[in-house]
Amino acid sequence: MNSDSGQRYPEPTVGALILNGRGEMLLVRSHKWGERYTIAGGHVEVGENLVSALRREIREEVGLGIRNIRFLMVQEAIFSKEFWKPKHFIFFDFVCRAAGGLPRVDGKEIQSFVWVTPRKALRLRLDVYTRRMVKKYLAEGRTPLHSEAS
Fold first, then answer.
1. How many helices (H) and strands (E) does the chain have?
2. How far apart are CA 72 and CA 51, in angstroms?
3. Residue 45, domain member (yes or no)
4. Inter-residue contact 16 to 40 (CB < 8 Å)
5. Is residue 54 a part of any domain in this protein?
6. Which of these, 140, 100, 115, lies nearest to 40 by C-alpha position?
7. Which tens digit of pLDDT belongs to each residue from 44-67?
8. 133 lies in which domain range?
9. 3-class secondary structure, 134
10. pTM for the full model?
11. CATH number at residue 27
Protein backbone atom coordinates (compact mmCIF):
# COMPACT_ATOMS: atom_id res chain seq x y z
CA MET A 1 0.00 0.00 0.00
CA ASN A 2 1.36 3.42 -0.95
CA SER A 3 0.46 6.59 0.88
CA ASP A 4 -0.01 9.97 -0.75
CA SER A 5 3.65 10.67 0.08
CA GLY A 6 4.81 7.76 -2.10
CA GLN A 7 6.15 5.85 0.89
CA ARG A 8 6.30 2.12 0.10
CA TYR A 9 7.49 0.74 3.46
CA PRO A 10 7.36 1.82 7.11
CA GLU A 11 10.26 4.05 8.09
CA PRO A 12 12.35 2.99 11.11
CA THR A 13 13.25 5.90 13.37
CA VAL A 14 14.99 6.36 16.71
CA GLY A 15 14.46 8.90 19.46
CA ALA A 16 15.11 9.36 23.15
CA LEU A 17 14.01 10.92 26.36
CA ILE A 18 17.31 12.63 27.16
CA LEU A 19 17.81 13.31 30.88
CA ASN A 20 20.14 15.75 32.58
CA GLY A 21 21.74 15.45 36.01
CA ARG A 22 18.67 17.04 37.67
CA GLY A 23 16.31 14.36 36.33
CA GLU A 24 14.78 16.72 33.78
CA MET A 25 14.09 15.56 30.24
CA LEU A 26 14.78 17.43 27.04
CA LEU A 27 11.72 18.02 24.89
CA VAL A 28 11.79 19.84 21.57
CA ARG A 29 9.01 21.76 19.83
CA SER A 30 8.60 20.96 16.15
CA HIS A 31 6.40 22.38 13.41
CA LYS A 32 6.39 18.87 11.90
CA TRP A 33 4.34 17.75 14.90
CA GLY A 34 1.92 20.69 14.84
CA GLU A 35 4.01 22.80 17.25
CA ARG A 36 3.79 20.03 19.84
CA TYR A 37 6.64 18.99 22.06
CA THR A 38 8.32 15.77 21.01
CA ILE A 39 11.68 14.04 21.39
CA ALA A 40 14.84 14.51 19.37
CA GLY A 41 15.57 11.73 16.91
CA GLY A 42 15.27 10.68 13.31
CA HIS A 43 15.79 8.10 10.60
CA VAL A 44 17.89 4.97 10.73
CA GLU A 45 20.19 4.81 7.71
CA VAL A 46 20.83 1.60 5.77
CA GLY A 47 23.63 -0.36 7.45
CA GLU A 48 23.36 1.59 10.72
CA ASN A 49 22.42 -0.05 14.02
CA LEU A 50 19.81 1.61 16.24
CA VAL A 51 22.19 2.96 18.90
CA SER A 52 24.55 4.43 16.29
CA ALA A 53 21.57 6.04 14.56
CA LEU A 54 20.38 7.46 17.88
CA ARG A 55 23.79 8.96 18.71
CA ARG A 56 24.03 10.51 15.21
CA GLU A 57 20.50 11.91 15.19
CA ILE A 58 20.77 13.43 18.68
CA ARG A 59 24.09 15.06 17.73
CA GLU A 60 22.61 16.38 14.46
CA GLU A 61 19.31 17.60 15.92
CA VAL A 62 20.31 19.09 19.27
CA GLY A 63 24.12 18.98 19.35
CA LEU A 64 24.39 16.68 22.37
CA GLY A 65 26.39 13.56 23.04
CA ILE A 66 24.51 10.85 24.93
CA ARG A 67 25.43 8.01 27.27
CA ASN A 68 23.76 5.34 29.42
CA ILE A 69 21.38 4.40 26.63
CA ARG A 70 18.49 2.09 27.52
CA PHE A 71 15.75 0.79 25.23
CA LEU A 72 12.30 1.89 26.41
CA MET A 73 9.69 0.81 23.86
CA VAL A 74 8.67 0.44 20.25
CA GLN A 75 5.71 2.34 18.81
CA GLU A 76 4.08 2.53 15.43
CA ALA A 77 2.64 5.69 13.87
CA ILE A 78 0.52 5.01 10.82
CA PHE A 79 -0.42 8.24 9.07
CA SER A 80 -0.70 10.17 12.35
CA LYS A 81 -2.83 13.28 12.01
CA GLU A 82 -0.39 15.03 14.36
CA PHE A 83 2.47 14.72 11.84
CA TRP A 84 2.66 17.26 9.02
CA LYS A 85 2.37 14.70 6.22
CA PRO A 86 1.16 11.11 5.87
CA LYS A 87 3.97 8.77 6.94
CA HIS A 88 4.20 5.32 8.48
CA PHE A 89 6.91 5.23 11.16
CA ILE A 90 8.20 2.53 13.47
CA PHE A 91 9.65 4.33 16.50
CA PHE A 92 12.45 2.68 18.48
CA ASP A 93 12.38 4.74 21.68
CA PHE A 94 15.17 4.99 24.25
CA VAL A 95 16.05 6.74 27.51
CA CYS A 96 19.56 8.15 27.98
CA ARG A 97 21.63 10.80 29.71
CA ALA A 98 23.06 13.92 28.13
CA ALA A 99 26.85 13.66 28.05
CA GLY A 100 27.37 17.36 28.72
CA GLY A 101 27.08 20.49 26.68
CA LEU A 102 24.08 22.64 25.89
CA PRO A 103 21.33 21.77 23.43
CA ARG A 104 20.95 23.85 20.30
CA VAL A 105 18.15 24.13 17.75
CA ASP A 106 18.38 24.90 14.06
CA GLY A 107 15.02 26.68 13.74
CA LYS A 108 14.14 24.44 10.77
CA GLU A 109 13.04 21.07 12.16
CA ILE A 110 13.11 22.14 15.80
CA GLN A 111 11.88 25.55 16.93
CA SER A 112 12.70 25.44 20.65
CA PHE A 113 13.53 23.14 23.54
CA VAL A 114 12.76 22.86 27.23
CA TRP A 115 14.20 20.87 30.13
CA VAL A 116 11.30 19.70 32.28
CA THR A 117 10.60 17.06 34.92
CA PRO A 118 8.68 14.04 33.62
CA ARG A 119 5.56 14.94 35.62
CA LYS A 120 5.59 18.52 34.33
CA ALA A 121 6.14 17.20 30.81
CA LEU A 122 2.71 15.59 30.95
CA ARG A 123 1.17 19.08 31.33
CA LEU A 124 2.73 20.23 28.05
CA ARG A 125 1.24 19.88 24.59
CA LEU A 126 2.99 16.63 23.63
CA ASP A 127 2.51 14.42 20.63
CA VAL A 128 0.75 11.19 21.58
CA TYR A 129 3.88 9.05 21.15
CA THR A 130 6.01 11.23 23.43
CA ARG A 131 3.20 11.23 26.00
CA ARG A 132 3.21 7.40 25.96
CA MET A 133 6.99 7.37 26.43
CA VAL A 134 6.87 9.72 29.42
CA LYS A 135 4.07 7.69 31.02
CA LYS A 136 6.00 4.44 30.52
CA TYR A 137 9.16 6.00 31.95
CA LEU A 138 7.23 7.17 35.03
CA ALA A 139 5.48 3.81 35.43
CA GLU A 140 8.84 2.03 35.50
CA GLY A 141 9.97 4.24 38.39
CA ARG A 142 13.59 4.05 37.25
CA THR A 143 16.29 6.55 36.68
CA PRO A 144 18.31 5.98 33.54
CA LEU A 145 20.99 3.39 33.55
CA HIS A 146 23.52 4.36 36.14
CA SER A 147 24.91 0.83 36.17
CA GLU A 148 24.11 -0.31 32.63
CA ALA A 149 26.54 -0.16 29.73
CA SER A 150 26.42 2.79 27.41
1. 3, 7
2. 12
3. yes
4. yes
5. yes
6. 115
7. 999 999 999 999 999 999 999 999
8. 11-140
9. helix
10. 0.90
11. 3.90.79.10
